[in-house]
Design goal:
Strand order of the largest sheet: 1-2-3-4-5-8-9-10-12-13-14-15-16-17
Strand content: over 45%
CATH architecture: Beta Barrel
Shape: globular
Radius of gyration: 21 Å
CATH superfamily: monomeric porin ompg
CATH class: Mainly Beta
Helix content: under 10%
Length: 324
């Protein structure tokens, strides 16, 4: 528990939950990806980080988004729950999203997105334990001298924004900024603890490994998609580099995640996709100093796309970003 408390203290400095399958959770990655499938889409995500610890980190995410062709706009909603330390700290978020799709040339598209969120963070203070509560022989027998928080629940409104650019079906990239107003989210009434802005830059491309038919990529054609993701939130920095290999209906992927101060994890993915749904599983192999005790991380994603016959054929073609 003491180890977990030290980790929680680090997390409380303002790191958002991180998903390894970031493109399988597009609205969480960048609000400008709202409506990127050009069809109504339901997405479910589950992440269990460091399962070998008694008090691990579990995150649930559900989202829905839909493109409205008549106004070149998309709308979405996200529900997210993050439980740290077996529920010692629980953060629940509900977000509404809007994005606008602009055709800037024959082959280029620009999307701009906005997100408004309601956060509620709860602390189970009475079940926390500290080092000064333990006797070397008799165990936990003392009360702690740690000062009790002024409040056990914090709620606030937050805003985010993002941009994405796509060129044909070969290149994509984006920029997003979360927590624009840096809201106060501390347990004590000192107004010094804020949720720092999170900057995200992501980009990638799709390389054909088989010839196209009449200038178009066949659904079952094999492709390779190199990708890069950079995130920074206050002093925390993260870089993901990797690639996807697509051979319908399967997708395999691998990445390396580095936190600059130390290497973090190798990530391996296996995905299965059909015209209406996608299912992915990934595992993080921890390579940091915690590798012998954490058990890595398991992540599962599921996406279901609804039929949308009223849309034009061009609008039914999704942005060329990966599925997972």
């Amino acid at each position: 528990m003491i180890l977990v408390l030290s980790i929680l203290c680090i997390e409380l400095k303002g790191q958002d939950p991180t998903f390894s399958q970031f493109y399988a959770n597009p609205l969480y990655l960048n609000p400008a990806l709202t409506g990127s499938a050009f069809s109504p889409r339901l997405t479910l995500n589950y992440r269990n980080q460091w399962p070998s610890l008694a008090d691990n980190f579990v995150t649930y995410n559900a989202s829905y988004d839909q493109y409205i062709p008549d106004i070149n706009s998309s709308f979405g909603i996200i529900f997210n729950t993050d439980r740290a330390g077996s529920g010692m700290i629980t953060t629940t978020t509900v977000s509404g999203l809007y994005s606008y799709n602009l055709k800037i040339s024959r082959n280029s598209y620009l999307n701009a997105g906005l997100q408004g969120s309601y956060y509620q963070r709860k602390l189970d203070w009475l079940n926390l334990t500290f080092g000064d509560m333990f006797h070397p022989v008799y165990g936990q027998i003392y009360p702690t001298s740690e000062p009790s928080p002024d409040k056990y629940s914090v709620s606030f409104i937050d805003f985010s924004a993002g941009l994405t650019y796509t060129y044909r079906d070969v290149f994509f990239g984006g920029l997003s900024v979360n927590h624009l107003t840096q809201p106060y989210d501390g347990w004590y009434n000192d107004n010094t603890t804020v949720l720092p802005r999170k900057w995200t830059i992501h980009a990638g491309g799709i390389i054909d490994l088989e010839p196209r038919s009449r200038g178009r990529r066949n659904l079952e054609a094999m492709t390779l998609s190199p990708n890069i993701l950079y995130q920074q939130q206050q002093n925390f920095k993260q870089l993901n580099v990797g690639l996807y290999l697509n051979k319908y209906p399967f997708v395999v992927g691998t990445w390396f995640r580095h936190n600059f101060e130390n290497p973090d994890a190798f990530i391996f993915l296996l995905g299965f996709q059909q015209s209406s749904f996608k299912l992915g599983y990934s595992y993080d192999i921890t390579v940091s100093k915690l590798k012998n005790v954490t058990g890595g991380a398991h992540e599962v994603s599921f996406t279901f796309q609804f039929n949308s016959p009223e849309q034009t054929r061009r609008r039914n073609e999704p942005m060329p970003c990966p599925s997972f």
